């Protein structure tokens, strides 16, 4: 007989033979019946041959049903067996006490066979459903752990071949005897290797942030200088769409030299702003304006605005993992990593988009404490 064909077993515990006969006759069809006339015998039988469900009397000599229930629930080997009290003690306080011990139901004596069958059927189905859910959760947990292990191994293993990709180009260039075109290709190989290494490192950092294990290393830094450098790197993309890039500090146009100091981890801050600027340029229409506004205070605010509108299907999941819309090569990790980085700094992010004004602003909030004074962010 397969496990799926196995008849559920019922342990009936009562010191009155007539009561046992009534319950046994009610459940004989479709169930394997076991009986015990004393509490101590019920404990021994439940531990040796765990039943699928127990029908338990309360008033018994030597050990009452409440004590039997308490001991069964205290034993990990029997704690998961559903227990239904079948008793004449049916005052509300009796029922409440029995349920507080871990019983799943109460049936009043004299027990109706139809009620007994229905209650037993319901609780056996509930137990089967809980066990199946536990199996599914265990399988999902194991699958998630396996995926994380594979991802972590791949990230670490990818670094080994990158050592050669990054380390050999300078040696080749030092040897000389290359044409200008060959030298350009070698530099491209080195640059691509460095970008890949940066992506792997960032991926590892995000992995730690997701699990709350990332060790933040904040330091004073010039946010305006970071934005100016990002503008220079994005000039080609902005030029293709005839976009204008503007920076303001504390509400005033950037003069190209005034610092805007804040405390953050330098590389993470650069990555976070680069993601925001990239998304803003992609969303900006032709001849649009993309603005980065650095605002002093605690928390400091960094607002990135473009003249595009976030699609309706993206607004509720804008900062969610893998959320993307209308991008053939989009990973959906840009805004997600922005949120993780801001939260790693103890801050947060928000997005505001308006069909009326045709603009979208992503605002990053970074707590500063003693750092926020004057033109310091």
Helices, by number, come to 10
In the CATH hierarchy, what is the class of the largest domain?
A: Alpha Beta
Q: How would you classify the helix and strand content by structural class? A: alpha/beta
Largest sheet: 6 strands, mixed
- Beta-strand content: 15-25%
Catalytic activity: ATP + protein L-histidine = ADP + protein N-phospho-L-histidine
Keywords: Kinase, Phosphoprotein, Transferase
EC number: 2.7.13.3
Enzyme class: transferase
What does this structure look like?
- The structure is a single chain.
- This protein is α/β, with parallel strands linked by helices and 377 residues long.
- It has three domains: 109 residues, Response regulator (Rossmann fold, 3-Layer(aba) Sandwich); 57 residues; 153 residues, 2-Layer Sandwich (Heat Shock Protein 90), CATH 3.30.565.
- The strands form three sheets. It has a six-stranded mixed sheet.
- Helix 2 runs parallel beside helix 3 and helix 5 packs antiparallel against helix 6.
Give me a quick take on this structure.
The chain has 377 residues and is of the alpha/beta class.
